[in-house]
Amino acid sequence: MPTMSIISCKIMQDEIIWILENDSSIDEIIIVDNENIWEFVEKLDKVNLQYKVLSLEDISSLPEIKSECKKYTVLIHLMELGLHRSPKELKIKVYETIKTLAPFSSGILLFYGLCGNVLGNVEKDFEHSSISCPVRILKDKDHRIVDDCIGATVGGFNDYLRILKSVSDAGTYLFTPMYSKGWRELIQLDKLNKDPAKALKLMKKTHEMIGYKRVAKINTGLEYTENFDASIREFAELFDFEILEFDDGNQKIFEDCYNELKVEI
Questions:
Q1: Which of 10, 53, 124, 208 could tie 78 with a disulfide, CB 3.0–4.6 Å?
Q2: Contact (CB, 8 A) for 254 and 15
Q3: Cβ(43)–Cβ(13) below 8 Å
Q4: How far apart are CA 18 and CA 224, in angstroms?
């Protein structure tokens, strides 16, 4: 049976857990050991999913990963949030990770979108490369690569555009549960200035200049990330933002793309 590798920004870890919980055919879950997994494995423990945490060196030494066997394995490699600040660096890191995991994989699924238009050609770039497995990226029902994690969560381009148009009168952050917890890390707030309070003050000034006034809560139906409401309120109070709410979040794109690659491999 094959090994599917999922390379994902850790902001989409809840969607991965949902996939793992809802596929009873998975025999083994392997997590690549790095600094991005601690919250993810805590959530796996809470839902009683069994897994192994292995280094890339350990994975490369497992013959059952590289050869035909009776088990269906899902291998997960979580990437850091901060890569989004530099699309060029994100592309380099994602491409390097694909090349690293390919020898252990029957197929690779990227839980990413265009992300600044740097991953739009990833399938073509690896189609005729030396790696021996298919590489796929998140697409909507119209076979369009999703723009980003929010676009994937709300169902693709058309649904994303509808939401963006509905809030176009003022700058609006769109937060999924993980986004509400990870925004500080995403922009590396504490590294922007030696004085975090000063950095926050600068952010507030920036919001005023570019017209950001709201944060929108995107309900996904997933409850792996706790205290979503509290995190949204904290962010809103910090920047004096209005709170909106959308019930458009779903797992359709993640489920469809996962199942399509599973059939392919």
A1: 10
A2: yes
A3: yes
A4: 9
